[in-house]
Amino acid sequence: MNRTTRLSRRTVLHGIGTAIALPWLEAMMPAVVRANGLSADKGGVAPRRMAFLYVPNGVHMADWTPSEVGSGFSMPPTLKSLQGFKDDLLVLTGLAQHNAEALGDGPGDHARSLASFLTGAHPLKTDGAGIRVGISVDQVAAEKVGRQTRLPSLELGIERGAQSGNCDSGYSCAYSSNISWRSASMPMAKEINPKSVFDRLFASRSREGSQSDRVKRELYQKSILDLVLDEAERLQRRLGANDRRKIDEYLTAVREVELRITQAEGAAKSLPANGLSRPKGIPEDVGEHIRLMFDLIALSFQCDATRICTFMYANEGSNRNYPSINVTEGHHDLSHHGGDAKKHEKLKVINRFHIEQFGYLLGKLKSIPEGSGSLLDSAMVVYGSGISDGDRHNHDDLPIIMAGKGGGTIKPGRHLKVAAQPLNNLYLAMLDRVGVSPERLGDSSGRLGQLDG
Q1: Quick count: other Cβ atoms within 10 Å of Cβ 271?
Q2: DSSP 3-state assignment of 185?
Q3: What's the distance, Cα to Cα, between the start and end of the chain in Å?
Q4: CA–CA dist 100, 396 (Å, integer)
Q5: Are strands 400-403 and 379-384 parallel, antiparallel or unpaired?
Q6: Rounded distance, CA 171 to CA 131, Å?
Q7: What is the DSSP string of 4-51?
Q8: Is the pLDDT at 407 greater than 80, yes or no?
Q9: 168 within 8 A of 317, measured Cβ to Cβ
Q10: What's the rounded Cα separation, in Å, for the pair 314 and 160?
């Protein structure tokens, strides 16, 4: 392509009721970066992303924690499926959320563990008005970083949750259902319908007529790509081979997700009208539901629709069962194992299933090139729970993994065992890496060191 030709990072393909932002292209790099042969990441222009993934009810710690410390650690049984991503991972032990403890408030560990997980704050015990906890790390980042993207942040999950009522020993359901808090009293409700997330990412930004345009597109069964194809072809004629390939791969990924959502919608429509059918666009299979959401996270990062995301595998205290992996008992019931070996085995199956889905997300992010690396290289993805052992309901030595290199500021491939300290110390170190540096966050006592080796 012509050296003087440049595209704005905000270039969008428009169609009726549709606006598809583009992935990072060489044509979007500043001329000085291209002239010196620098990649997007080396030129300091690739954005850094943060994602926080939460699993409820703790994990079976004996099969989670590596025996060795440092880079020579062996993957423990629960993490075996992540072997191919070992060099992209930091397994962290020793981190805690003290404010998930009772602190005089009695039972309610599940509600407290989720409410405090990203805030480091102790929730006010109430099942009515006056809920109060703290601002979560994702929203601290979104307040500044989110101004640079169309969506300040994205809150996702696969299990709907109530926003009021008593869900855990006198604690409001809002605490058990929300991981993200915009303010101490304002949770950010998660979206569980992949179709709604897809429309949010790719529907037109124009308010006027956007709903009718979307209805028209669905009536004629048009893919969003059908509506932007001409504009995409015109744009590609102006680009070099690498950028043409990137656009082809990106639009193919968008189309594949769209097709899977359409298939899930068709399955939902075919269910009997007994009041129990799922909303449109939500797959019957929980694994497919999770993977669709992870595909949408990858797409949202790839097109820079947002740089901040949270995801909940289920509400805290969830008693979901997993018949697709031959676990018919409820997860919460199994977590109260009382040392029962049979319950332990079934818990390990659930833990491995969750980790396998995490590996799917890592594979998607790692497969998307950006500069001389990948989307995963620019990201920081935290996976964990606010409970360690579900039977003990303890909130120290939490199961935490961080994937990605934070734009080259993190050295993964290690089991990092730290002296007991607040989990929020990790979050402060992450915030520094996206250009947000509050003095404190929740119960933080400093910034976690050793991330860069």
Answers
A1: 11
A2: coil
A3: 40
A4: 9
A5: antiparallel
A6: 9
A7: T----TT-EEEETTEEEE----GGGS-HHHHHTT--TTTTT-SPPEEE
A8: yes
A9: yes
A10: 8
Question: Are residues 93 and 415 in contact, defined by beta-carbon separation less than 8 angstroms?
Answer: yes
The Cα 317–Cα 327 span in angstroms is 17
| Adjacent-strand bridge partners of 14 | 19
C-alpha distances in Å from residue 389, one per residue of 117, 263, 275, 335, 394: 15, 38, 36, 8, 6
Q: Which residues contact 38 (CB under 8 A, 6 or more apart)?
A: 29
Cα radius of gyration (the chain): 22
pLDDT (tens digit, 9 = 90+) per residue, 381-393? 999 999 999 999 9
Largest CA distance in the chain: 68
Hey, what domains does the chain have and what are their CATH numbers?
1-38+198-281 (no CATH), 49-192+285-453 (3.40.720.10)
In angstroms, the CA 46 to CA 42 distance is: 8
To which residue do tokens 């703790």 refer?
A: 58
What's the per-residue H, E or C state across 302-325? HCCCCCEEEEECCCCCCCCCEHHH
Model confidence at 426, pLDDT cuts 50, 70, 90, reads: very high
Tokens for 80, please give them: 């075996």
What crossing angle do the helices spanning 286-302 and 341-367 adopt, rounded to 10°?
Answer: 30
Whether 450 has a pLDDT exceeding 70, the answer reads yes
Residues 204 and 213 sit within 8 Å (Cβ to Cβ):
yes
The pTM of the whole model exceeds 0.70: yes
What whole-number distance in Å separates Cα of residue 87 and Cα of residue 90? Answer: 8
List Cβ<8 Å contacts ≥24 apart for 78-85.
78/348, 78/351, 78/352, 78/355, 79/355, 79/401, 80/352, 81/352, 81/355, 81/356, 81/359, 82/355, 82/358, 82/359, 82/362, 84/359, 85/359, 85/362, 85/363, 85/366, 85/403
CA dist list (Å): 407 to 100, 122, 238, 261, 376: 31, 32, 29, 32, 9
Summarize pLDDT for 149-163 with one digit per residue, the tens: 999 999 999 999 888
Mean pLDDT, range 109-128, rounded to an integer: 96
Spatial distance between the Cα atoms of 439 and 369, rounded to a whole number of angstroms: 34
E strand or H helix at 183, and its extent? Answer: strand 181-183
**In terms of residues, how long is the chain?**
453
> Measuring CA to CA, how many Å separate 264 from each of 155, 200, 225, 291?
21, 18, 19, 13
* Integer Cα distance of 154 and 297 in angstroms: 8
Distance CA 407, CA 373 (A): 9
